[in-house]
Amino acid sequence: MKKQVTLDSRAEKEIGKFPKAVRAKIKAYTDILAETGQLYEPFAKKLTIRPAIYEIRIKHQGIKLRKD
Known about the structure:
Strand order of the largest sheet: 1-2-3
Radius of gyration: 12 Å
Number of strands: 3
Order of helices and strands: HHEEE
Distance between the termini: 24 Å
Number of helices: 2
Largest sheet: 3 strands, antiparallel
Strand content: 25-35%
Structural class: alpha+beta
Oligomer: single chain
Number of domains: 1
């Protein structure tokens, strides 16, 4: 059963500034999250249980990008 993944409007605005490759990775991770209901380190960290809030971690060209 698919889960609902919601991005905060501030997060969507900031994600829009990232390079296309990073945005593609974020989409892939949110698709996995929606499909399975979970993500694991080193790609994400679960911050809270209810509501389930994840921090997605992406490394692009040697730079670590984190999106809460």
